[in-house]
TrEMBL record:
Keywords associated with the record: Coiled coil, DNA-binding, Isomerase, Topoisomerase
EC code: 5.6.2.1
Catalytic reactions of this protein: ATP-independent breakage of single-stranded DNA, followed by passage and rejoining
One GO MF term attached to the UniProt entry: DNA topoisomerase type I (single strand cut, ATP-independent) activity
Designated name of the protein: DNA topoisomerase I
Basic residues bias locations: 76-89, 98-107
Annotated GO biological process: chromatin remodeling; chromosome segregation; DNA replication; DNA topological change
Organism annotation: Saccharomyces pastorianus
Pfam families: Topo_C_assoc, Topoisom_I, Topoisom_I_N
Residue ranges that the Swiss-Prot or TrEMBL entry lists as coiled coil: 651-713
CDD domains, per the entry: Topo_IB_C, Topoisomer_IB_N_htopoI_like
Superkingdom of this protein's organism: Eukaryota
Region (Disordered): 1-125
Enzyme class label: isomerase
Length: 767
DNA sequence: ATACATACTTAGCAGCCACCGC
DNA sequence: GCGGTGGCTGCTAAGTATGTAT
């Protein structure tokens, strides 16, 4: 195969021949052209040694089983060169933060808010640390000084009132509080899917019994043996009532509570990094709960235990004051490691892995990492041609390992697959590129491939695509007997081999960089296609469409919301009703002037398009809706009156309302029979009605577009790509060039996260 | 090379709350 | 003004990647 052939991989290899094809089309069924000439040696068996099948065995088991006492975590890394702390700037940043908080309190007053924002901006300009304007030094050292106040622990368990209990075989069970807490975790989920999942039930019940045993068993000698004999409903109901009560609080009370909480959290929400005040991300320690693994997770439902101060390692400057541990406790360890970003960590008990407390997304450290990530992806631009040329050539390599690498990189590049590291048996069975198995890929000659597997978060990846002919051939070889379902497709590959290979092209190049690169490249290309015209709303729609192609490329999905089908139906009913109203208007016009039918027959065609059945359906829908409305109104009104101790509305009132509806119904029925519309007073002239028709058409138009947009977005999640894959500078440039306010594209938090991008590019910047 | 340990990014979802159409 | 709805945010699970010891 030639280099030219390689560059025909459709999506964006040298975006020449199909620049004008909307990506949305090519993405659904991505086609890969192939000019490969199948010469005989291509088919030579590339297995260059007979250990070929040796690694075929399914996946390896067990990892992370290593246990280590929490009290003695591994020693910190050696690199503890602590550069001298920079001078600390004074209270300026303090003031700023308070201003932000105050802002939250006051609603409405737009001007005031604007003013304040303006003020803040000024302050920002004075003393904000603009790291992106500085030279970038050593990045193995993350900070010079770090001070913080530790972490917030969840409140201790509050036992339930004594009349709320778990029931076993119908008998109340007295649980020690520690066990009651665990039972409560389950009870709270009673109506969720988790509670119906047998694995979840089993894992929960085991751990629950364990905790019960640890605490001396039940207090009233009920022996719990089977999950199915437990009744959590009383507990569940109690939680529901509590939730309801919380909701019932006045907005004043809610506000009060919120303010108190914010005040308490203030000290933990911020830390001091190199003398600057920066936000901490997850300063709250995760509360105990039942582990909610995604997909078919073997450990789902297990108890995630409470974390104590003794479990926590704090990381801060040597000279920083050590925050006091909660009363009667001490910290597990204090560390001074400035080669890492985390402020605190602990080991969790589900996988025995670590959880970290780190800085917020708007912090300088995170911003710098983010910036670096996108710069690395941009660097790939100057290597991508060589990489594609090489993998295209290596698709025919005599060496099996090379062929596998070539195909893998092809898949990662073209279909944006993840690297696909090995997983242990106690995790959900999900895969990425390197861990693809026989059954995940179906080959349909001549060159169609169906991918069907569960990826990260057990999100299904399903695509039927055409691939390069040589890729197809290779996949056929990778699936040859004795391989069978359960066997690895890339039996000689893992991400580290792949990454090592990739680093030959460019330092720091790894599989994931391709996702960033292709996502941002796609976005750039899509934005380039948008004409600079129309309203802001129209431009936004186009921006979102571009965003959507990226999300589809990266397979970012979301579950359709519960009410989605209903919402769609409602919306299309509305549109249908608008159409119907239009027809009525046109009928009315004819009633005013019959002669028009001959003059403009086209205009009145729609009248015939509406069938009697459809019309009757619409009538019924409207009437039903109105009846319901009356009834609801009646009930509501009386509820209110009851509450205020006023006299209730008599039934006759309801009847009166309903009679009005009945009249309308008669009118509709008559209209259906005769085809004659009762002329409204506003329909005094043909012109007026025509104007109304125009309005209706406008509404139909917008409603239809909105509906379509909603439908297309129902399964696609735009946020993930916007937050993680699309270089934010692209969006900034788009806004600048197209006069779209950045607020329309980035929420407040995103604007803070991407401050570096917003302030650093002009409108000529390109990815 | 493998196995494990560590640290950092990416991911979807629940719940809340502001806003919008009636 | 009211109730539903969609957008945001917080949360934490689930990935990727690299360093270190064996």
């Amino acid at each position: 195969m030639t280099i030219a052939a390689a560059s025909k991989v459709k999506r964006d290899l040298s975006s020449d021949d199909d620049d004008d094809v909307p990506l949305s089309q090519t993405l659904r069924k991505r086609k890969i052209d192939s000019a490969s000439s199948a010469s005989s040696h291509d088919d030579a068996d590339p297995y260059d040694s007979d250990e070929a099948i040796s690694k075929i065995s399914k996946k390896k088991k067990t990892k992370r089983i290593k246990t280590e006492p929490l009290s003695s975590p591994p020693s910190p890394k050696k690199k503890t060169t602590t550069p001298k702390p920079k001078k600390i700037k004074k209270e300026n940043s303090d003031v700023k933060v308070k201003a932000t908080k105050k802002k939250k309190e006051q609603k409405k007053k737009q001007e005031e808010e604007d003013q304040e924002a303006e003020d803040q901006k000024l302050k920002d300009e004075e003393d904000e640390y603009k790291w992106w304007e500085k030279e970038n030094e050593d990045d193995t050292i993350k900070w010079a000084t770090l001070k913080h106040n530790g972490v917030i622990f969840p409140p201790p368990y509050q036992p339930l009132p004594s009349h709320i209990k778990l029931y076993y075989d119908g008998n109340p069970v007295d649980l020690p509080p520690q066990a009651e807490e665990v039972a409560g975790f389950f009870a709270a989920l009673l109506e969720s899917d988790h509670a119906k999942n047998p694995v979840f039930q089993k894992n929960f019940f085991n751990d629950f019994l364990q905790v019960l045993k640890e605490n001396g068993g039940t207090l009233n000698n009920v022996e719990l043996k089977e999950f199915s004999r437990c009744d959590f409903t009383k507990m569940f109901d109690y939680f529901q009532v509590q939730k309801e009560q919380k909701k019932q609080l006045t907005s004043q009370e809610k506000k009060q509570i919120r303010l108190e909480r914010e005040k308490f959290e203030e000290d933990y929400k911020f830390c001091e990094l190199d003398g600057r005040k920066e936000q901490v991300g997850n300063f709250k320690v995760e509360p105990p709960d039942l582990f909610r693994g995604r997909g078919a997770h073997p450990k789902t439902g297990k108890l995630k235990r409470r974390v104590n101060p003794e479990d926590i390692v704090l990381n801060l400057s040597k000279d920083a004051p050590i925050p006091p541990a909660p009363e009667g406790h001490k910290w597990g360890e204090i560390r001074h490691d400035n080669t890492v970003q985390w402020l605190a960590m602990w080991r969790e008990n589900i996988f025995n892995s670590f959880k970290y407390v780190r800085l917020a997304a708007n912090s300088s450290l995170k911003g710098q990492s983010d910036f670096k990530k996108f710069e690395k992806a941009r660097q790939l631009k100057s290597h991508i041609d060589a990489i594609r040329r090489d993998y295209t050539r290596n698709l025919k390599s005599k060496v099996m390992l090379e062929r596998q690498k070539a195909v893998a990189i092809y898949l990662i590049d073209v279909f944006a697959l993840r690297a696909g590291g090995e997983k242990s048996e106690d995790e959900a069975d999900t895969v990425g590129c390197c861990s693809l198995r026989y059954e995940h890929v179906t080959l349909k000659p001549p060159n169609t491939v169906i991918f069907d597997f569960l990826g990260k978060d057990s999100i299904r990846f399903y695509q039927e695509v055409e691939v390069d002919k040589q890729v197809f051939k290779n996949l056929t070889i990778f699936k040859r007997p004795p391989k069978q379902p359960g066997h690895q497709l890339f039996d000689r590959l893992d991400p580290s081999i792949l990454n090592k290979y990739l680093q030959n092209y460019m330092p720091g190049l790894t599989a994931k960089v391709f996702r960033t690169y292709n996502a941002s490249k796609t976005m750039q290309d899509q934005l380039d296609l948008i004409p600079n015209k129309g309203s802001v709303a129209e431009k936004l729609l186009k921006y979102n469409a571009a965003n959507r192609t990226v999300a589809i490329l990266c397979n970012h999905q979301r579950t359709v919301t519960k009410g989605h089908a209903q919402t769609v139906e409602k919306a299309s009913n509305r549109i249908q009703e608008l159409e119907w109203q239009k027809v009525r208007c046109k009928r009315a016009i004819l009633q005013l002037d019959k002669g028009l039918l001959k003059k403009e027959p086209k205009y009145f065609e729609e009248i015939e398009d509406l069938t009697k059945e459809d019309e009757a359906t619409i009538h019924k829908r409207i009437i039903d809706r109105e009846i319901e409305k009356c009834q609801r109104k009646f009930v509501r009104e009386n509820d209110k009156r009851k509450f205020e101790k006023e006299e209730l509305l008599p039934e006759t009132q309801l009847k009166e309302w309903l009679e009005k509806v009945e009249e309308k119904k008669q009118e509709f029925e008559n209209e259906l029979k005769t085809g004659e519309v009762e002329l409204k007073s506003t329909w005094s002239s043909v012109e007026k009605i025509k104007a109304q028709v125009e309005k209706l058409e406008q509404r139909i138009q917008t409603s239809s577009i909105q509906l379509k947009d909603k439908e297309e977005n129902s399964q696609v999640s735009l946020g993930t790509s916007k937050i993680n894959y699309i270089d934010p500078r692209l969006s900034v440039v788009f806004c600048k060039k197209f006069d779209v306010p950045i607020e329309k594209i980035f929420t407040k938090t995103l604007r803070e996260k991407f401050k570096w991008a917003i302030e650093s590019v002009d409108e000529n910047w390109r990815f």
